[in-house]
Write a structure and sequence with these properties.
By secondary structure, this protein is mostly helical. It has helices spanning about 5-10, 20-35, 55-65, 65-75, 80-85, 95-105, 105-110, 115-135. The longest helix is centred in the C-terminal third of the chain and has 19 residues, at about 115-135.
Length: about 140
């Protein structure tokens, strides 16, 4: 990781763990908040310059998208681990969630032109499909 990416990640990290189900619900909240807006970085920050809690996943995906896509494709790596941490996935459940994300990769990133916002929206759709099956 280069220094600026590392600093961005350090600023964004810090969410506590929760269950996979709760994580998926949180992802819905986060991706729902971003899919209806532009990807302007200005909307990610509070007046004090802090990343808004509901924008951490969005900001991280936009700042590290190339590396994140690589990790998602192979199902492991520091960027994918950081994403799942920001999503609130517990340390124990991260391998399961990473494998789930890897299995959905062709749907999450269907082309080289896929944007971070499109990937997060697809992640939300896949999560909703999983939730509807398990209910």
């Amino acid at each position: 990781m280069n220094r600026s990416t590392w600093l961005a990640c350090a600023v964004l990290l810090g969410m506590s763990g929760c269950s996979f189900k709760a994580t998926i619900e949180q992802t819905t909240d986060t991706t729902s908040n971003l899919t209806g807006t532009t990807s302007s970085g200005r909307s990610w920050f509070t007046g004090e310059g802090q990343v808004k809690q509901d924008q951490k996943v969005n900001a991280f995906a936009h700042l590290t998208f190339d590396q994140l896509k690589q990790d998602m494709a192979v199902g492991h790596g520091e960027y994918l681990d950081s994403l799942t941490s920001l999503m609130g996935v517990s340390q124990e459940e991260r391998p399961l969630v990473a494998a789930w994300i890897q299995s959905r990769y062709p749907r999450l990133v269907p082309s080289d032109q896929t944007t971070p916002s499109q990937m997060l929206a697809a992640l939300d759709r896949e999560r909703r499909a999983l939730a509807s099956i398990s209910n």
